[in-house]
Each structure stands twice: as structure tokens, then as C-alpha cells.
Amino acid sequence: MPSRGACVPSSGAAVPSRGACVPSWGARLPSWRTRVPAWGADVPSWRADRGKWEAHDGKRGARRGRSEACKGRSGAAAPAPHIRLACSSPEISRTVMGLMMRVTRIRKAVSVHCLASFTTGQKFAWRLHMEKCTQCSRNIPTAEPACVHEAQIVCRDCNDAARPTCPSCRGLLKKEPKRAAGCPHCGETVYVRSRQVRFATKLLTSDQAEEADWAANLSGFGITHGDFDRQWRMFRQSGGTWTSDDVIWALLNESIGRAREANEFRALHLLQADFLVKRGRDPGESLRQAFVWRVRDWQASEVVSGLRILADRCCEACAENHNRQLNLEEALRAPPLPNPKCTRRYADGQEFAWCTCTCVSSID
Questions:
Q1: 249-259 burial, b for 16+ CB within 10 Å, e for fewer?
Q2: What is the C-alpha to C-alpha distance for residues 207 and 244, in angstroms, rounded to an integer?
Q3: For the segment 36-90, what is each residue's pLDDT rounded down to a tens digit?
């Protein structure tokens, strides 16, 4: 077995010095600034994707959209060009956009484009500045996803008019429907939501239309599209079969946890009652909580002393309580609304009652 000394050269052997492997500090090393051109050089502008090439001027800055750092500061980095990333889902695209915004926070003249594909198969572009449609020349708001059609950025209206597609079977339609209509290929109903910004197309399925409507309803309570994406991601990671109703119900409960005012609690409980009754479930508890929060709001005002029930337009069983007066403590102890004997139904054939009785405040 060789000795340990056999692996080590003798003292007289030529051993490379440390300086031979590592360049000295005085050597000319490539600087990180060699990759960034100076401000005085002719560099393509960030407007290159629009066919306009401008020169960066370090003395005068740019005419439009240029940050203050472009005005001749030494050592400033050049504006980043358009960064186009192909992502497979809107969640990934928004995550990438957030990361790019953090990395380039010191660069104010940055424009990030993330191309992604929704479940409908449409391509859209999330951006930090307002785009202009290449067909109708309309300025596309940043809240509205811009579609990509034939390698050009177009608005959602022009994209749907050029290629009206069924969201269920992806079959091409003869013309763009203006209202809900059946697909000639699969027979499914195509719903139209022209004001929603949840999806990249106005033509939606039943579940997508329901989700878009609830996204608009919950936007006033702090629920964003990112919350919908996060809830969908949590459900998919947990496994099982989930629908948009599960996502909406989870976000309704989350909104109640975020609420701070009595009016917000009452409005959210009424939304829960509407959600339940349209799906054939009992809305009684949600209606009761909405009534309780209304009474608590009156009690906190220290002005209202009682209430009067208005029940002349509900049903015969509720008409017996019409003009009944109660004080606030009694109403909180035993809420009279909704009436447990109510016989009114939200729709024909439903099992549970939908009491429409209301109340007004009374001041002594």
C-alpha cells in the first residue's frame, strides 16, 4: 500500500504557486458593466416591439415612458426590453410577473409581458402598461387581458369576433353570439359576459360565467382574481373533484373572516343565502345572521330603540307578523326573521322557504 508521502510531491518538485491558479487582483478582469451599454451608445429602445427604434440619450432622457434614472446618472442600468415568457397557467404567469417586478424595482422603465393560456385555450398578455389593439386601435386597459391573434396583440372583442370559439368543445362558431345560445357542435350553452375580466374571452361555460359573476360581486369585499387562483390551486393540490361552487363558497367564508363592519357582515350573509337558495339548500341560517347583524348595527348607533316588521308582501303565514314592534334586545334574543312558518319559495319545486320579510327602525 503506498505511503501517504507517495501522493505528496517532494519539496524539490515544481509545485504551481497559488498565484498561477488565481489571477492577481491587479489583473484586468471582465466587469459586470461590460454587458450593459453606456447611455450614450445607440441601444434599441423598449418600444422595439412596436416597430419604433429610438436612441437613448443620456443628457436629455427619453420623450415618453422613460424613468428619471435615464437622465445621465452614472452607473445606471439600461432599460430592460420586453420579456416574453410562455406560461401554462394564469397562476404561473402572475407569479413570474411579480418576481420580475421585484427584481427590476429600481428600473422604472420596465415592461413585462407574460403570455399564458387559460382553460379556454385563449392566449392573453399580462402587462404593466396599456397596450393598443392592432385591429381597432382601442387602448386595452391593464385590468383587461389582451389576447394574441396571429402574432399580434388584439383586444378581447376583436379576438372573439375573428375566432368565435365554443368554450366547451373548442369548436368554431359561425358568428359571435351576443347572448346565451347553444353550440351547434356539442349542444352546450355558451354564455356571454362582456364586462368580466376574469377570463380572456367573453364566451364562457356555465361554471365560468358563474365564477365571473361572483368575482364581480366579491371584488367589493377585497377578493381578487389572485384569491380565486390561490383557492383553485389549494383544491387541486388536495386532490378530489372540485367545482367553481366550492371555490365561491370558500371565498365567501373568507370574506366574512375579513369583514370589519356590520354592513359588510350583513351583505355577505345575504350573498350566502342567495348562493344556497339557488342551489336548492336551506338559506334560513344565513338570512337569520343577516338580520342579527342589521340589529347589531342599529344597537351600536345608540339612536334606534326598536324595530317594526313589514311582512305584508311575503305569504299568509308571515302576514300575521305585519307591523309587529320589538325592542332591539328582544330581537337579538329571539330573531323573528326569517319566519320559520314561511311558505314562500324562491322557485317552484324547491323544498326550503325564502322569507322576504323585512324590518324598519323605530326611534322613541
A1: bbbbebbbeeb
A2: 6
A3: 444 444 444 444 443 433 444 444 444 444 444 443 443 444 443 333 333 444 4
Side chain identity at residue 226, one-letter code: G
Q: At what angle are helices 244-258 and 206-218 packed, to 10 degrees?
A: 10
All 3 cell numbers of residue 285? 341560517
Each residue's pLDDT tens digit, 158-185: 888 888 999 999 999 999 999 999 999 9
Which residue type does 49 have? D
**Strand (E) positions, the chain?**
83-86, 112-117, 123-126, 131-132, 139-140, 146-149, 152-154, 181-182, 189-192, 203-204, 306-310, 325-327, 358-362
CA distance 260 to 279: 28
Please answer whether residues 254 and 273 qualify as being in contact, where contact means their C-beta atoms are separated by less than 8 angstroms.
Answer: no
Cβ-Cβ contacts under 8 Å for 39 (sequence gap 6 or more): 56, 57, 58, 70, 72, 76, 78
How far apart (Å, rounded) are the C-alpha atoms in residues 301 and 80?
55
pLDDT digits (tens, 9 = 90+) for 315-356: 999 999 999 999 999 999 999 999 999 999 999 889 999 999
3-class DSSP state of 262: helix
Beta strands 83-86; 112-117: pairing state: parallel
| DSSP-derived pairing of the beta strands 123-126 and 112-117 | antiparallel
Provide the 8-state DSSP code for 80: P
Q: Name which of 289, 301, 298 is nearest 338 in CA terms.
A: 289
- Compute and round to an integer the Cα radius of gyration of the chain: 32
Specify the pLDDT at position 269. Answer: 97
Residue pLDDT, tens place only, 12-45: 444 444 444 444 444 454 444 444 444 444 444 4
Q: State the CB neighbour count (10 A cutoff) for residue 319.
A: 13
Q: Write down the pTM of the prediction.
A: 0.63
- Quick check: 122 pLDDT over 60? no
DSSP 150-219: TTEEE-HHHHHHHS-B-TTT-PBPSS--SS-EE-TTT-PEEEE-SS--SSSSSEE-HHHHHHHHHHHHHG
Q: Of 182, 212, 181, 211, which is closest to residue 195 (Cα–Cα)?
A: 212
Kindly state the DSSP code that residue 110 receives in the 8-state scheme: -
